[in-house]
Amino acid sequence: MEIAIIKYNAGNVASVMYALDRIGQKYQLTDDHEQIKKADKVIFPGVGEASTAMAYLKEKGLDEVIKGLKQPVLATCIGMQLLCKHSEEGNVDCIGVFDVEVKKFISKDLKIPHVGWNSIVQKGENPLMKGLKEEEFVYFVHSFYAPVNQYTTAVCEYEQPFSAMLHKDNFYAAQFHAEISGKAGEQILKNFLAL
Amino acid sequence: MLTKRIIPCLDIKEGRTVKGTNFVDLRDAGDPVELGALYAQQGADELVFLDITATVDDRKTLVNLVREVARHVNIPFTVGGGISSIADVSALLNAGADKVSINSSAVRRPELVDELALAFGSQCIIVAIDTRFEPAAGQDFVHTHGGRRITELKTLEWAREVENRGAGEILLTSMDADGTKAGFACDLTARISSAASIPIIASGGAGTMEHFTEVFTTGKADAGLAASIFHFKEIEILALKNYLATQGIPMRI
Question: Which end of chain B has the lower number of beta carbons within 10 A, N or C?
Answer without folding.
Answer: C
